[in-house]
Design a protein that fits this description.
The protein has about 130 residues and is of the alpha+beta class. It is built from 3 helices and 8 strands. An 8-stranded mixed β-sheet has the order 2-3-4-1-5-8-7-6. About 30% of the residues are buried. The site of zinc ion has 6 residues, from strand 1 and strand 5.
Length: about 130
């Protein structure tokens, strides 16, 4: 793994949360993006080296909504940048971590992503992400 790429935060109301984080970080949201496959809308903030991703569902009964029902709003995942997502998936799988996908999928922010099940990572949802180079 290269570095912590971003921290994902589950929110109920994306617009309200964008305003809140713009005020908190004193920096504008630089991008919003819908991830159709997940029915999720995302909003990104960059402060120095640190990136924050807000996530809210665009449909009822989606994964973020279910997360919030169980745990409330808050930190949803930690995302680590990797240089070779396929190699890293193989390494982690062989080490006994539970991957939520067999193959990387297209995530927000032009990235290939794969998630690790929190039951194999002390309760923390971990995202691996690799920049897609066109
Ligand atoms: Zn993420």
């Amino acid at each position: 793994m290269v570095k912590l790429e971003h921290i994902g935060i589950a929110v109920k109301d994306i617009n309200q949360s964008i305003a809140l984080y713009e005020s908190l970080l004193n920096t504008p949201c630089y991008k919003t993006e819908n991830v159709e496959s997940e029915a999720v809308t995302t909003a990104f903030f960059q402060k120095g080296e640190t990136k924050i991703e807000l996530l809210a569902n665009t449909i009822t009964g989606g994964v973020i909504e279910k997360f919030i029902e169980k745990k409330g709003e808050g930190i949803h995942h930690l995302a680590f940048a990797v240089s070779d997502i396929f190699a890293e998936m193989t390494r982690l799988s062989n080490a006994g971590f539970v991957l939520l996908q067999d193959q990387p999928k297209k995530g927000a922010d032009n990235k290939l992503v794969c998630f690790l099940h929190p039951k194999s990572t002390n309760g923390v949802l971990i995202e691996l992400c690799q920049e897609i180079i066109d």
